[in-house]
Design goal:
Length: about 130
């Protein structure tokens, strides 16, 4: 299992971020999958997406000043991400932290490769959020 994170200052208030960062928007901002379906459940929001010949399902839970989501179905053994934001200067600091595991030997190598790809997705998501809100 590997952990990665990325953060960025965004010229948007926490209230603007909260309104913009829906589960579907966040998946789209990561850039690897296109959202096909979003549905509300008693536990939160479920997003079904596909891309690159794969289908993935994420379960989202709201958090104070952020979201937590995890892959329910998909190509990885584990993928869990926490999005948080807090006011900073005249905007907000947005942070994404992920834990990823492939379940494929040799794990030391495959988990590192998955973490490298995931870090790129997190950075792309932050860039997309900044571009949309600034």
């Amino acid at each position: 299992m590997a952990e990665v994170s990325a953060s960025r200052f965004v010229h948007a208030t926490p209230a603007e971020l909260e309104a913009f960062l829906t589960p579907a928007t966040l998946v789209e901002c990561e850039g690897s999958f296109a959202v096909r379906e979003t549905r509300e459940t008693s536990e939160g929001v479920v997003v079904l997406a596909d891309g690159g010949g794969m289908e993935i399902e994420f379960a989202f839970e709201p958090r104070e000043k952020g979201l937590r989501y995890e892959q329910r179905r998909g190509p990885l053994e584990r993928l869990a991400t926490t999005l948080s934001y807090q006011a900073e200067n005249e905007g907000a600091r947005v942070e994404l932290r992920s834990t990823v595991a492939t379940g494929t030997p040799p794990r030391a190598i495959t988990d590192r490769l998955a973490a490298w790809k995931r870090r790129g997705e997190l950075r792309r998501a932050l860039s997309s959020v900044a571009a949309e809100l600034e």
